[in-house]
Automatic annotation (TrEMBL):
<keyword id="KW-0812">Transmembrane</keyword>
<keyword id="KW-1133">Transmembrane helix</keyword>
<dbReference type="Pfam" id="PF04367">
    <property type="entry name" value="DUF502"/>
</dbReference>
<feature type="transmembrane region" description="Helical">
    <location>
        <begin position="73"/>
        <end position="93"/>
    </location>
</feature>
<protein>
    <submittedName>
        <fullName>DUF502 domain-containing protein</fullName>
    </submittedName>
</protein>
<dbReference type="InterPro" id="IPR007462">
    <property type="entry name" value="COV1-like"/>
</dbReference>
<feature type="transmembrane region" description="Helical">
    <location>
        <begin position="21"/>
        <end position="53"/>
    </location>
</feature>
<keyword id="KW-0472">Membrane</keyword>
Amino acid sequence: MSEPHHPTKRRSLLAGLRASFLTGLVVVLPIGLTIYLIWTVVGWIDGWILPLIPGPWKPDVLVRQWFGPEATIPVRGVGVAVFLVFTVFIGWLGKGFIGRKFLTWAEGLVDRMPVVRSLYNGLKQIAETVFSQNESSFERACLVQYPKEHIWAIGFVSTRAKGELQAKLNHEGYLDVISIFLPTTPNPTSGFLLYVPEKDVVYLDMKVEDAAKLIISAGLVYPNGKEAAGVPVRNPSAK
Protein backbone atom coordinates (compact mmCIF):
# COMPACT_ATOMS: atom_id res chain seq x y z
CA MET A 1 0.00 0.00 0.00
CA SER A 2 1.22 3.49 -0.82
CA GLU A 3 1.68 5.97 2.00
CA PRO A 4 -1.20 8.40 2.39
CA HIS A 5 -0.59 11.96 1.30
CA HIS A 6 -1.25 14.86 3.62
CA PRO A 7 -1.82 17.90 1.38
CA THR A 8 -3.47 19.82 4.20
CA LYS A 9 -0.42 19.54 6.44
CA ARG A 10 1.87 20.45 3.56
CA ARG A 11 -0.19 23.55 2.76
CA SER A 12 -0.27 24.56 6.43
CA LEU A 13 3.52 24.20 6.59
CA LEU A 14 3.96 26.39 3.51
CA ALA A 15 1.47 28.91 4.88
CA GLY A 16 3.42 29.05 8.15
CA LEU A 17 6.69 29.56 6.32
CA ARG A 18 5.12 32.27 4.18
CA ALA A 19 3.72 34.04 7.25
CA SER A 20 7.11 33.86 9.00
CA PHE A 21 8.83 35.21 5.89
CA LEU A 22 6.42 38.16 5.64
CA THR A 23 6.81 38.86 9.35
CA GLY A 24 10.58 38.82 8.91
CA LEU A 25 10.29 41.29 6.05
CA VAL A 26 8.22 43.63 8.19
CA VAL A 27 10.96 43.53 10.85
CA VAL A 28 14.04 43.56 8.60
CA LEU A 29 13.06 45.96 5.81
CA PRO A 30 12.52 49.13 7.92
CA ILE A 31 15.76 48.53 9.83
CA GLY A 32 17.76 47.65 6.72
CA LEU A 33 16.44 50.53 4.65
CA THR A 34 17.02 53.00 7.48
CA ILE A 35 20.64 51.87 7.89
CA TYR A 36 21.16 51.92 4.12
CA LEU A 37 19.76 55.46 3.77
CA ILE A 38 21.84 56.76 6.68
CA TRP A 39 24.96 55.08 5.26
CA THR A 40 24.26 56.51 1.80
CA VAL A 41 23.60 60.05 3.05
CA VAL A 42 26.73 60.01 5.21
CA GLY A 43 28.80 58.82 2.24
CA TRP A 44 27.28 61.52 0.03
CA ILE A 45 28.14 64.23 2.55
CA ASP A 46 31.66 62.84 2.92
CA GLY A 47 32.15 62.87 -0.84
CA TRP A 48 30.90 66.45 -1.02
CA ILE A 49 32.73 67.94 1.98
CA LEU A 50 36.13 66.23 2.01
CA PRO A 51 37.26 67.50 -1.45
CA LEU A 52 36.57 71.08 -0.29
CA ILE A 53 39.03 70.85 2.61
CA PRO A 54 42.49 72.26 1.77
CA GLY A 55 45.14 69.61 1.25
CA PRO A 56 47.21 70.12 4.42
CA TRP A 57 44.03 70.12 6.53
CA LYS A 58 42.45 66.98 5.16
CA PRO A 59 41.71 64.47 7.95
CA ASP A 60 43.77 61.67 6.41
CA VAL A 61 46.78 63.98 5.99
CA LEU A 62 46.55 65.13 9.61
CA VAL A 63 46.24 61.56 10.87
CA ARG A 64 49.36 60.49 8.95
CA GLN A 65 51.24 63.47 10.36
CA TRP A 66 50.19 62.74 13.93
CA PHE A 67 50.21 58.93 14.02
CA GLY A 68 52.63 57.93 11.26
CA PRO A 69 52.50 57.30 7.50
CA GLU A 70 50.66 54.00 7.89
CA ALA A 71 47.72 55.44 9.85
CA THR A 72 44.38 55.77 8.09
CA ILE A 73 40.79 56.78 8.89
CA PRO A 74 38.54 53.82 8.13
CA VAL A 75 35.57 55.41 9.88
CA ARG A 76 32.83 56.72 7.60
CA GLY A 77 31.37 60.07 8.56
CA VAL A 78 34.43 62.30 8.93
CA GLY A 79 32.97 64.68 6.38
CA VAL A 80 29.73 64.83 8.36
CA ALA A 81 31.64 65.76 11.52
CA VAL A 82 33.56 68.46 9.64
CA PHE A 83 30.32 69.79 8.15
CA LEU A 84 28.62 69.96 11.56
CA VAL A 85 31.56 71.76 13.20
CA PHE A 86 31.86 74.20 10.28
CA THR A 87 28.11 74.91 10.24
CA VAL A 88 28.01 75.53 14.00
CA PHE A 89 31.00 77.88 13.68
CA ILE A 90 29.39 79.83 10.83
CA GLY A 91 26.12 80.05 12.77
CA TRP A 92 27.98 81.37 15.80
CA LEU A 93 29.69 84.02 13.65
CA GLY A 94 26.40 84.91 11.95
CA LYS A 95 24.76 85.74 15.27
CA GLY A 96 27.50 88.23 16.19
CA PHE A 97 27.68 91.88 15.21
CA ILE A 98 30.53 91.44 12.74
CA GLY A 99 28.87 88.38 11.20
CA ARG A 100 25.58 90.21 10.68
CA LYS A 101 27.36 93.14 9.09
CA PHE A 102 29.23 90.82 6.75
CA LEU A 103 26.03 88.97 5.79
CA THR A 104 24.27 92.28 5.11
CA TRP A 105 27.14 93.38 2.87
CA ALA A 106 27.24 90.02 1.05
CA GLU A 107 23.47 89.96 0.49
CA GLY A 108 23.62 93.53 -0.83
CA LEU A 109 26.29 92.39 -3.28
CA VAL A 110 24.17 89.41 -4.36
CA ASP A 111 21.10 91.65 -4.86
CA ARG A 112 22.96 93.45 -7.63
CA MET A 113 23.32 90.22 -9.63
CA PRO A 114 20.08 89.55 -11.56
CA VAL A 115 20.17 85.74 -11.96
CA VAL A 116 22.11 84.98 -8.77
CA ARG A 117 19.73 87.21 -6.80
CA SER A 118 16.65 85.20 -7.72
CA LEU A 119 18.36 81.89 -7.05
CA TYR A 120 19.78 83.00 -3.70
CA ASN A 121 16.55 84.55 -2.43
CA GLY A 122 14.56 81.45 -3.37
CA LEU A 123 16.99 79.08 -1.65
CA LYS A 124 17.18 81.35 1.40
CA GLN A 125 13.40 81.44 1.75
CA ILE A 126 13.21 77.64 1.52
CA ALA A 127 15.98 77.21 4.10
CA GLU A 128 14.37 79.68 6.49
CA THR A 129 11.04 77.90 6.17
CA VAL A 130 12.43 74.40 6.67
CA PHE A 131 14.96 75.14 9.41
CA SER A 132 13.15 77.96 11.19
CA GLN A 133 13.39 77.73 14.97
CA ASN A 134 10.14 79.56 15.67
CA GLU A 135 6.80 77.95 16.35
CA SER A 136 5.47 78.30 12.81
CA SER A 137 4.27 74.86 11.78
CA PHE A 138 1.10 73.07 10.82
CA GLU A 139 -1.43 73.60 13.59
CA ARG A 140 -3.84 70.71 13.15
CA ALA A 141 -4.93 68.01 10.78
CA CYS A 142 -8.32 68.41 9.18
CA LEU A 143 -10.71 67.13 6.54
CA VAL A 144 -11.81 69.19 3.54
CA GLN A 145 -14.03 68.32 0.62
CA TYR A 146 -11.69 67.99 -2.35
CA PRO A 147 -11.69 67.75 -5.37
CA LYS A 148 -15.48 68.05 -5.15
CA GLU A 149 -18.31 67.92 -2.67
CA HIS A 150 -18.81 64.70 -0.65
CA ILE A 151 -15.21 63.58 -1.34
CA TRP A 152 -12.97 64.15 1.65
CA ALA A 153 -9.21 64.63 1.82
CA ILE A 154 -6.81 65.07 4.73
CA GLY A 155 -5.10 68.43 4.96
CA PHE A 156 -3.02 70.44 7.41
CA VAL A 157 -4.09 73.80 8.77
CA SER A 158 -1.39 76.40 8.17
CA THR A 159 -2.55 79.95 8.95
CA ARG A 160 -5.48 82.27 8.44
CA ALA A 161 -5.71 84.30 5.27
CA LYS A 162 -3.76 87.54 5.62
CA GLY A 163 -3.13 90.78 3.79
CA GLU A 164 -4.49 91.12 0.28
CA LEU A 165 -5.92 87.60 0.29
CA GLN A 166 -7.96 88.32 3.40
CA ALA A 167 -9.19 91.63 2.02
CA LYS A 168 -10.21 90.15 -1.33
CA LEU A 169 -11.96 87.17 0.23
CA ASN A 170 -13.77 89.34 2.76
CA HIS A 171 -14.94 91.57 -0.09
CA GLU A 172 -16.39 88.48 -1.79
CA GLY A 173 -18.24 87.55 1.40
CA TYR A 174 -15.91 84.79 2.61
CA LEU A 175 -15.09 85.35 6.27
CA ASP A 176 -12.75 83.36 8.51
CA VAL A 177 -10.82 81.76 5.65
CA ILE A 178 -7.85 79.59 6.56
CA SER A 179 -5.01 78.26 4.44
CA ILE A 180 -4.70 74.48 4.21
CA PHE A 181 -1.91 72.42 2.73
CA LEU A 182 -3.32 69.37 0.98
CA PRO A 183 -0.50 66.81 0.52
CA THR A 184 -0.39 64.10 -2.11
CA THR A 185 -0.05 60.36 -1.52
CA PRO A 186 2.45 58.78 -0.98
CA ASN A 187 4.76 61.82 -1.27
CA PRO A 188 3.50 64.42 1.24
CA THR A 189 6.20 66.95 0.27
CA SER A 190 4.13 67.95 -2.76
CA GLY A 191 0.54 69.04 -2.74
CA PHE A 192 -1.84 71.98 -3.06
CA LEU A 193 -2.41 75.19 -1.13
CA LEU A 194 -6.12 75.75 -0.54
CA TYR A 195 -7.96 78.66 1.05
CA VAL A 196 -11.11 77.27 2.62
CA PRO A 197 -13.80 78.91 4.82
CA GLU A 198 -13.35 77.61 8.34
CA LYS A 199 -16.99 76.55 8.51
CA ASP A 200 -16.28 74.00 5.76
CA VAL A 201 -13.30 72.46 7.60
CA VAL A 202 -13.65 69.39 9.85
CA TYR A 203 -10.87 69.37 12.44
CA LEU A 204 -9.34 66.04 13.45
CA ASP A 205 -8.23 65.03 16.92
CA MET A 206 -5.28 62.98 15.64
CA LYS A 207 -1.79 64.46 15.70
CA VAL A 208 -0.24 65.97 12.60
CA GLU A 209 2.37 63.17 12.62
CA ASP A 210 -0.35 60.50 12.68
CA ALA A 211 -2.19 62.15 9.81
CA ALA A 212 1.06 62.25 7.83
CA LYS A 213 1.55 58.51 8.42
CA LEU A 214 -1.98 57.91 7.20
CA ILE A 215 -1.28 59.86 4.01
CA ILE A 216 2.10 58.28 3.31
CA SER A 217 0.74 54.76 3.77
CA ALA A 218 -2.26 55.47 1.51
CA GLY A 219 -4.62 54.76 4.40
CA LEU A 220 -3.01 51.48 5.49
CA VAL A 221 -1.37 52.75 8.68
CA TYR A 222 -4.15 54.16 10.84
CA PRO A 223 -3.47 55.92 14.16
CA ASN A 224 -4.78 53.94 17.11
CA GLY A 225 -5.15 50.99 14.80
CA LYS A 226 -6.47 48.64 17.51
CA GLU A 227 -9.39 50.90 18.28
CA ALA A 228 -10.05 51.54 14.60
CA ALA A 229 -9.97 47.81 13.84
CA GLY A 230 -12.93 47.29 16.12
CA VAL A 231 -15.13 49.74 14.23
CA PRO A 232 -17.44 47.82 11.89
CA VAL A 233 -17.54 48.86 8.24
CA ARG A 234 -21.06 49.12 6.91
CA ASN A 235 -21.75 47.18 3.73
CA PRO A 236 -23.64 49.49 1.35
CA SER A 237 -25.47 46.51 -0.18
CA ALA A 238 -26.76 45.34 3.19
CA LYS A 239 -30.26 46.39 4.10
